[in-house]
Amino acid sequence: xxxxxxxxxxxxxxxxxxxxxxxxxxxxxxxxxxxxxxxxxxxxxxxxxxxxxxxxxxxxxxxxxxxxxxxxxxxxxxxxxxxxxxxxxxxxxxxxxxxxxxxxxxxxxxxxxxxxxxxxxxxxxxxxxxxxxxxxxxxxxxxxxxxxxxxxxxxxxxxxxxxxxxxxxxxxxxxxxxxxxxxxxxxxxxxxxxxxxxxxxxxxxxxxxxxxxxxxxxxxxxxxxxxxxxxxxxxxxxxxxxxxxxxxxxxxxxxxxxxxxxxxxxxxxxxxxxxxxxxxxxxxxxxxxxxxxxxxxxxxxxxxxxxxxxxxxxxxxxxxxxxxxxxxxxxxxxxxxxxxxxxxxxxxxx
Length: 350
Prior knowledge:
Layout: H1 3-19, H2 37-60, E1 64-77, E2 88-101, E3 105-114, E4 120-131, E5 135-139, E6 144-149, H3 152-155, E7 159-164, E8 170-176, E9 178-181, E10 184-188, E11 192-194, H4 198-201, E12 209-219, E13 222-233, E14 239-252, H5 258-285, E15 288-291, H6 298-313, H7 318-332, E16 333-334, H8 340-349
Antiparallel strand pairs: 1-2, 1-14, 2-3, 3-4, 4-7, 5-6, 6-15, 7-8, 9-10, 10-12, 11-12, 12-13, 13-14, 15-16
């Protein structure tokens, strides 16, 4: 057994002991001298299992009831004459629920709770976590995505996070390893493309995508989604307009109207399962797919959200609402999105 594997086994065992209430009587360091290769192999497999369980615990720790604060600040401009925009800050109440857990696949659904005395649920984003995935969905600009196959080295010990829009269309994805070091569990993506956020998509046309490094870190009070964003123009030669720092904090709260969001989900989860299946069918049909509309896709998500509401209120049956939702998706989804230059030209023309 190599020194690296001995160190890995010892470190993982010590980490598991540190994160459990009872602790452990011994660690991998106590077993540094293995008497047989099978013993070493077994210890290494146990280390992988322990690391996998730590990863799962970190992902599942993001579920809960939260008071959320969103903060985005442009910092360094890279274009002559560009003045960073004023910081964007907002907050709200949000629940995060585990809607599927198959061990190596965990799906977390976010639902906002908004309004004054009368609370209203608003379906928000979804994050799927996949262990050692064979492929990942990546944003490629111009309202299009590709399904990219991963090599064994790219996926070994790593998790894909794929983030979805409010209508369950994809937004972005990346693959990285959860790390549990210095008392913190965190996942940091490599730089990956993302569509414009709504705060900019409805107001700006001077850039086309965000090149983002995303970090999810678990804290005693909840968790944080940190973002190192580069606002990127893809027209001609790619160029960065400005850097932006995003810090979204999810602080545990026991005084939000979680039942409003939970009731909504109970009434619509069958509808949304059908919508997810439709997007999965499209992604399976073509390794490159996208939307026929550019910019903020309100024409797509507004009617789909309305159909979910109609199913929840009993104005339509779930089957009727889902059939109409599939028709809306078919109207705006395409498996032949065209070249990036054509898509960006269409975006500028809209």
